[in-house]
Design brief:
Blueprint (H helix, E strand, L loop, with lengths): L1 H44 L5 E6 L2 E8 L2 H12 L7 E7 L11 E7 L2 E8 L5 H12 L4 E8 L8 H14 L2 E6 L3 E7 L3 H14 L5 E7 L9 E7 L2 E9 L2 H14 L2 E2 L4 E2 L8 H13 L4 E6 L2 E6 L5 H14 L5 E5 L14 E6 L5 E7 L2 H15 L4 E7 L7 H12 L4 E7 L3 E7 L4 H12 L6 E7 L12 H14 L13 H14 L6 E7 L6 H21 L7 E7 L10 H7 L1 E7 L20
Parallel strand pairs: 2-3, 5-6, 8-9, 11-12, 11-13, 15-16, 18-19, 21-22, 23-24
Antiparallel strand pairs: 1-2, 4-5, 4-7, 7-8, 10-11, 10-14, 14-15, 17-18, 17-20, 20-21, 23-25
Helix pairs in contact: 6-7, 7-8, 9-10, 10-11, 12-13
Length: about 625
């Protein structure tokens, strides 16, 4: 008998594990196929017939023979409009480099990470070699430059030098870019992380351009993978509003606006564009759901991928709600699952007061948890969860145990804390009948994220109300630090811990990467300053080997700063090997002091140095 029970338990576990694996595998396949289809579609729409794409998990491999560098870059840029550029693995080849035989002065600069290609026609007085060397100096020594330039027997146009400087500056700001120059025009085609960076970059470049330069921009933001795809509409007092929305294309958003205009529906938040729609019937399922909601006086409809949840209040007749639900179930696409819920009339607690759990977050970041909980264990869990989300210093807890609360109270109270962590500030109230959420957010995706979280955490009987206001983040003008102030802050940081490397290698170790994160934050607040990144070793080993290792480590630090989007055009990496010890190389402790990285301010304050005072905690091990 015991063996039989054990055997059936094992079989059940294996079946569940198999189902979970199958679901995960199917989800990955859906994302892969969706991404591939979307990339192929945008290529076809833009006459890119030579490229092909394959997927492996979340990575997309793009390959094919590009006719020239411009076409290759265009194909990658188009793919970047569909998926995050970090997911694209470029395996394209260039059949030939197109030479410019025209007499018109023009230039194109292409950039992907640290790979830069330039081709075009320069004025007769522009030395190609000097221009290439200046470009290397501005973009950093590790730039991989490929050039195809020629001169034409024409003088430089007006403001040509200013236009070139602006182009190089713009190229430095972008990780992926194509910049096209003619005599007094510049077009910038590139990829940015988000809309805030896009607007900031446009303002910065425009402010540096002279009034005679015609600027144009085509900066794209890659679309994220949204999981799950979310839509929520709320109907109150005969009026409907959309509080969460995920769409895969602008075309779908236009169609939704036409539908909402016909039904007199208000859209509270912008739809979030991204990949991951469950299928081609997503918009059709939304339209049928809105039609059903329009027949109710009050209620909500929520779609999470292929799950539809229709709720109404207790006022509607049960037979009428059943008929509306039956009609919706017949109309929605076959793969969509519909759940409907009509609650019982709201009742008060035994003592005449509503039982309540409330969590609030002030604009200053102070968080309060107060109200009723079921047990001391629940209080400990809530304390740990809130401390993890907000920090114990910001937290005030005033909770009271009470028996007789529903068994779902623990889940609701923890969900309330999770929801509040997504808001800039607000209030989440939990009582026996409803979870009421109100507050402010500065991210357009918060409505969808809150809706998705609630739908996943709560049961179908639970009712929640969401009233969030979107306030665009304030644009803060940051005063840049001058060279001396920047140098001082880096020196203070380096005194607390130097940049460490794996033994005998130029690979920065885990602690060293954390130091570089901190230094990068400082450098991003600095103005146009110049630093030398100096690498040093101890005297063990051959002198030439030590010099090469110190140079490799200095270069590695420079690359890590570039990966953190620090402007390093004015930085120099130099290895000094064992020639500048600061301690006795005859002792193990002294050798550890001598293995170090230093930041030295150069330029007007060339005599100052950063990072030369290395504490014991900052020893860099070789």
């Amino acid at each position: 008998m015991k063996l039989s029970t054990w055997f059936y338990s094992l079989i059940s576990f294996l079946v569940v594990a198999g189902l979970c694996y199958a679901a995960a595998f199917l989800s990955v396949r859906i994302v892969e196929e969706t991404s591939k289809d979307q990339v192929r579609r945008i290529w076809i729409d833009n006459d890119v017939s030579w490229a092909e794409v394959e997927a492996d998990g979340l990575q997309l491999f793009v390959f094919g023979d590009a006719p020239d560098e411009g076409e290759r870059f265009r194909a990658i840029t188009l793919a970047g409009k569909i998926v995050d550029a970090a997911r694209i693995i470029d395996q394209m080849n260039v059949v030939r480099l197109e030479r410019k035989d025209q007499a018109d002065i023009s230039l194109e600069l292409l950039k992907r990470d640290n790979k830069v290609s330039i081709y075009g026609v320069l004025p007769k007085d522009d030395d190609k070699t000097v221009f290439e060397q200046n470009l290397r100096t501005e973009l950093g020594d590790d730039v991989q430059l490929r050039s195809l330039l020629e001169n034409v027997d024409q003088p430089a146009p007006k403001d040509w030098s200013s236009l070139l400087r602006l182009a190089v500056f713009s190229l430095e700001q972008l990780r992926y870019a194509k910049i096209s120059l003619t005599e007094q025009d510049m077009h910038i085609d590139g990829m940015v992380a988000d809309h805030v960076q896009k607007q900031s970059l446009i303002r910065t470049i425009t402010s540096k351009a002279s009034k005679d330069i015609a600027l144009s921009f085509e900066l794209t933001v890659p679309r994220p993978v949204i999981a799950p795809f979310t839509f929520r509409a709320v109907r109150e007092e005969g009026r409907t509003r959309i509080s969460a929305c995920s769409m895969e294309s602008e075309t779908e958003i236009v169609a939704l606006r036409e539908k909402t205009a016909a039904l007199d529906i208000k859209i509270d938040v912008p739809c979030q564009l991204g990949l991951g729609a469950p299928d081609a019937d997503w918009l059709k399922a939304i339209f049928h759901s809105l039609d059903a909601l329009d027949e109710l006086t009050a209620g909500t409809v929520t779609l999470l991928d292929r799950d539809i949840k229709l709720q109404t209040d207790a006022e509607i007749e049960e037979d009428r709600f059943a008929a509306i639900t039956a009609d919706l179930e017949r109309q929605v696409p076959a793969l969509y699952a519909l759940e409907s819920y009509r609650p019982n009339p709201i009742t008060a607690s035994v003592d005449g007061k509503d039982d309540e759990f409330v969590v609030t977050k002030s604009p200053e970041g102070l968080v309060q948890l107060r109200g009723l909980i079921r047990s001391a264990a629940n209080k400990e869990i809530l304390n740990s969860l809130a401390s993890a989300r907000f920090g114990s210093e910001q937290l005030y807890i005033s909770l009271e145990e009470k028996s007789g609360l529903p068994s779902s109270w623990d889940t609701k109270s923890m969900t309330a804390v999770e929801v509040l962590s997504l808001l800039k500030n607000g209030v989440v109230r939990v009582n026996r009948d409803v979870i009421d959420i109100s507050g402010i957010t500065d991210e357009t995706s918060t409505q969808s994220n809150v809706t998705s979280l609630l739908a996943q955490k709560l049961s179908e009987e639970d009712i929640y109300q969401i009233d969030l206001a979107y306030v665009a983040p304030r644009q803060i003008t940051v005063t840049k630090l001058d060279g001396v102030a920047c140098d001082t802050q880096i020196k203070e940081r380096m005194e607390k811990g130097n940049i460490k490397f794996e033994s005998g290698s130029d690979r920065v170790d885990g602690d060293g990467l954390k130091r570089l994160d901190e230094i990068a934050k400082i450098l991003k607040t600095c103005g146009d300053v110049s630093f030398e990144i100096a690498g040093h070793t101890d005297s063990q080993g051959r002198e030439e080997m030590n010099k090469n290792l110190s140079q490799s480590r200095a270069n590695a630090v420079l690359r890590e700063l570039q990966r953190r989007r620090v402007s390093t055009a004015r930085f120099v990496a130099k290895g000094y090997g064992e020639t500048m010890p600061i301690a006795d190389n005859q002792t193990a402790e002294g050798r550890e002091f001598n293995r170090r990285i230093e930041f030295r301010l150069i330029g007007e304050n060339e005599t100052r140095s950063s990072g030369s005072a290395v504490s014991e905690a900052g020893l860099a091990n070789e």
